[in-house]
Amino acid sequence: MPDDCLFCRIVAGEIPAEVVRRSDGLLAFRDISPKAPVHVLVIPERHVQSLAGVTGLTQAERSDMLAFIAEVATQEGLDESGYRVTTNHGPDGQQSVFHLHWHVLGGTQLSDSM
Ligand code: DGP
To answer: What does pTM read for this prediction?
Structure first.
């Protein structure tokens, strides 16, 4: 775990976060600066920098992560209304925290421009 990784520090409990779900090496917590009524971040507890480093996770971790994202959306009541899942990589993607994370957004009709 890199000492300077914000999300690793959230995983370790060193920085508080509003956790909504946790299971088997995966964590979901509310974004500190929500862009929608529901804005949850899903991360693998094990550090990889971004989607580009996803091969650093095991096949089981990768497939569990996908199912976990859907479970979080269901838990947040977004199944019927719908939701968006995004991840940012690198400068053009405007990634600002360098620990793989998925934005789960919903609770309103989202912009069609992203
Ligand atoms: P990205 O730009 O894709 O790297 O998104 C990083 C997100 O992380 C951004 O939406 C804001 C969120 N964030 C940054 N710092 C914190 C924090 O300390 N706690 C929480 N819960 N979210 C954070």
So the answer is: 0.97
d(CA 77, CA 108): 12
Q: Which domains does the chain have, with CATH numbers?
A: 6-106 (3.30.428.10)
Mean pLDDT, consecutive 10-residue stretches, the chain (114 aa), reads: 89 98 97 98 98 95 97 98 98 98 98 81
Report CA-CA distances (Å) from 112 to 68, 70, 109.
25, 21, 9
60 alpha carbon to ligand 1 midpoint, in Å? 25
Distance 77 CA to ligand 1 centre (A): 22
